[in-house]
Amino acid sequence: MEKITLICVYDLLKKNYPRHHLLKSCNYVGEFTSQPIYDLYYDVNQNNVRLIDGNTSINFEVYEIDDKVIKTLNFSYSAHKEAEIRLHSLNKIETPYGDALTFYNNVKLGSALNVLTNEQIKSFFKKNKIVNETTKI
Asked: Per-residue pLDDT for 100 more than 70?
């Protein structure tokens, strides 16, 4: 029997986002807004959003995933041990649903961070047609 793990997602893995298909077979548990202890950083060079320490509340979705999905996500996020540069690591965080994993930035960032609020992320995704007007971020 496969081990089931909770994962929190904050970026393109969320419902109605382009990479959600990676979680399509997973059980949706719920969503929550974190305490203001994170920031989202948009990395224009890697074209992805990174979770870092900060002072913003982040909207997360929580899913139940198995080892197969974890391996797929690790590869997708360059978090697997064989990656040349591990861009992310899976860190455990507390959620209203119990402890869960989330992808956390794993590389040193420059001093001039492009930290975005939830509204700025939403605006960026809509402007670049990554999501539509009705997508909940």
From this structure: yes
What distances in angstroms separate CA 69 from CA 4, 6, 25, one per listed residue?
10, 11, 9
- The dihedral built from the CA positions of residue 84, 87, 91 and 96, taken in this order, carries a sign that is negative
Beta strands at 59-65 and 115-116: parallel, antiparallel or unpaired: unpaired
Q: Cα–Cα distances in Å, from 81 out to 12, 46, 87, 105?
A: 22, 19, 11, 15
**Is residue 65 helix, strand or coil?**
strand
Amino acid identity of residue 109, one-letter, is: L
When pLDDT is averaged across residues 55-80 and rounded to a whole number, the result is 80
What span, in angstroms and rounded, lies between the C-alpha atoms of 99 and 41? Answer: 23
Between vectors from CA 51 to CA 47 and to CA 56, what angle results, nearest 5°? 120
